[in-house]
Amino acid sequence: MSLLQCQAMNYDWGKVGQSSFVYQLLENSGKTDLDSTKPFAELWIGDHDKAPSLLDNGKRLKDDERFGEINYLFKVLSVNKPLSIQVHPPKEQAVELHKIDPLNYPDENDKPEMAVAITKLSLLYGFRSFQQIKQFITQFAELAKAIGEDVANKFVEQPNSANLELLVQSLLFKPKDFIKGVAEELVLKIMKGEYHFEPSVLNAFTAINRYFPGDVGIFFPLILNVVECNPGSALYIPAGILHAYLEGDLYEAMHLSDNVVRAGMTPKFIDIKSISKTVNFVPQVPFVVEPKEEKFVKSYIPPHPVFCIEYINVPANEIATVEFKSSTCAIIQNGIASINGIISKVGNVFAIPKGQINIENKSNEPFIAVVCHSNN
């Protein structure tokens, strides 16, 4: 078992300073060189080349025989501004994209993900039903105008996957000035109260318009599902699913990859041409991962074999023995305890070899560690 030194990412969409859960974890762990005026968006835990975690002996995980190759990446995210509308490529597409453009697609891995909400989490996730999209096209003139009347009418007459792909292509390839003008028309009607939406959809419009005024992303709450997750809820996001986190704190586990195909709401590289090859153009019901609970352990196990997330919860003044079948990364969320004789506190991150650990909680509050490891 070893402490891990992990890297924080200061992307501009992150929460700033002490409002960020990432910042709070780092501060509690004893870091003193934190700039509270900066956003703290992500904490990377694992062995990705972009930001590898380092063991207390200075080695990377893959270079220490106790741990070896770890094929997952574990993150903590603190989202203040909407992230880009994005999709992660399946394996075959990832190989092709990396070969063509290794700068923007730095590896050959697919990137399915699982998110576990720490606070209330809102996001866009997968396409609405064909019937809902058809209804919104006929109900909101600005959506039909942004798509283009011919393409919009074609979808209304024949709502299917082929025409949904045409709809998204038409929307994304429109000139930016045209989209900006139509977006402003839509926002004006929303502000005047001429259009009425569920609170979650209205919140999505508000966030997108606040941070990305005039962006094509303003139309996507009418095309994608708007999802709100309570703390402790988990969603699996397979490759091929358009999505965008809007606000909240979360743990995220994924295959070891940083491949992202972006469609909007970002100053980063946008690759509209690859969207059609990558996106699964069928309606999606958000894939909720129900936890499996045993004594001391709550497990979130997605269908992908490379990763899972578990909460280890040891009540006050109790002792627990937990076994891991593969190398594990753990972050301490609450409390103080002795783990295999090592005192751990909030914000500490550990690499734990395969095998048993003993956790002794001598405090008067629960001890909670959140861990990520392979689920096969």
List the helices and strands and how they pair.
Blueprint lengths: L1 E4 L1 E3 L5 E2 L4 H8 L10 E2 L1 E5 L7 E2 L16 E8 L5 E3 L3 H10 L12 E5 L3 E7 L2 H10 L1 H7 L1 H9 L3 H12 L3 H16 L7 H13 L12 E6 L4 E4 L5 E13 L5 E4 L7 H7 L8 E2 L3 E3 L2 E4 L7 E7 L4 E6 L3 E7 L2 E3 L2 E3 L4 E4 L2 E6 L6 E7 L3
Antiparallel strand pairs: 1-6, 1-23, 2-5, 3-4, 5-7, 7-13, 8-14, 9-12, 9-13, 10-11, 10-13, 12-15, 16-17, 17-18, 18-25, 19-24, 20-23, 20-25, 21-22, 21-24
Helix pairs in contact: 3-4, 4-5, 4-7, 5-6
Can you tell me about this structure?
The chain is an alpha+beta fold. Among the domains are: 2-124 and 229-278, Jelly Rolls; 291-374, Jelly Rolls. Helix content is 24%, strand content 32%. It contains nine helices and 25 strands. It has helices spanning 21-28, 91-100, 130-139, 141-147, 149-157, 161-172, 176-191, 199-211, 272-278; strands at 2-5, 7-9, 15-16, 39-40, 42-46, 54-55, 72-79, 85-87, 113-117, 121-127, 224-229, 234-237, 243-255, 261-264, 287-288, 292-294, 297-300, 308-314, 319-324, 328-334, 337-339, 342-344, 349-352, 355-360, 367-373. Strands 2, 5, 7, 9, 10, 11, 12, 13 and 15 form a nine-stranded antiparallel β-sheet that branches. Strands 6-1-23-20-25-18-17-16 form an eight-stranded antiparallel β-sheet, with no helix packed on it. A four-stranded antiparallel β-sheet has the order 19-24-21-22, with no helix packed on it. A hairpin with a 2-residue loop joins β21 (337-339) and β22. α3 packs across α4. The longest helix has 16 residues, at 176-191. The radius of gyration is 22 Å and the shape is elongated. The model has no long low-confidence stretch (mean pLDDT 95). Keywords: Isomerase, Metal-binding, Zinc. Zn(2+) binds at residues 86, 88, 113, 243. Its cofactor is Zn(2+). It comes from Trichomonas tenax. Its EC number is 5.3.1.8.
